[in-house]
Design a protein that fits this description.
- The protein is mainly alpha-helical.
- It has a two-stranded antiparallel ribbon with strand order 1-2.
- The longest helix is centred in the middle third of the chain and has 25 residues.
- It is found in: Nucleus, Nucleolus.
- It comes from Linnemannia schmuckeri.
Length: 146
């Protein structure tokens, strides 16, 4: 294919896209013409957002235990986002509140979330193996103290 034919194809592409909802950007005139299309983005398209929300919304008659979503009653207010300690304490407090609210809601629905007192679970490691690990840790502590 010759250069004039490829330029015609690029011109046709430009002409075809001229009336559409796109913005054309091209390279400089000396080099090969690169055509980049960039769609215009509509910000805060409320009708489309509402339609999408309706499509993914859950029915209102689902019990809370099916979704288990909790919204905090208080917003996180951190004055300095670079202060790791205060930021983590705020996240911790919010998670703690969510856990308390979740336990209350499960109890209201009659759900059980605690292990029964007579529950017996097999241990992955034997008692002999755990005794060896404990002895090794005690020996390491003794050598550190010496």
């Amino acid at each position: 294919m010759s250069d004039s034919e490829s330029e015609n194809e690029q011109r046709l592409t430009l002409e075809d896209l001229e009336g559409s909802d796109t913005e054309m950007l091209s390279g400089d005139e000396d080099g090969p013409m690169d055509i980049l299309t960039q769609q215009r983005v509509t910000i805060n398209n409320e009708p489309a957002l509402k339609r999408l929300r309706e499509q993914i919304a859950l029915p209102s008659n689902i019990p809370w235990s099916e979704t288990q979503s909790i919204t905090s009653t208080q917003a996180i207010n951190v004055t300095d986002p670079d202060d790791d300690l205060n930021r983590e304490v705020a996240f911790y407090n919010q998670a703690l509140e969510a856990a308390v609210l979740g336990r209350d809601r499960i109890r209201k629905e009659g759900g059980v979330f605690e292990r029964p007192s007579d529950y017996f679970a097999e241990m992955i490691k034997t008692d002999d193996h755990m005794a060896k690990i404990r002895q090794r840790l005690l020996d390491e502590n003794a050598s550190i103290e010496a």
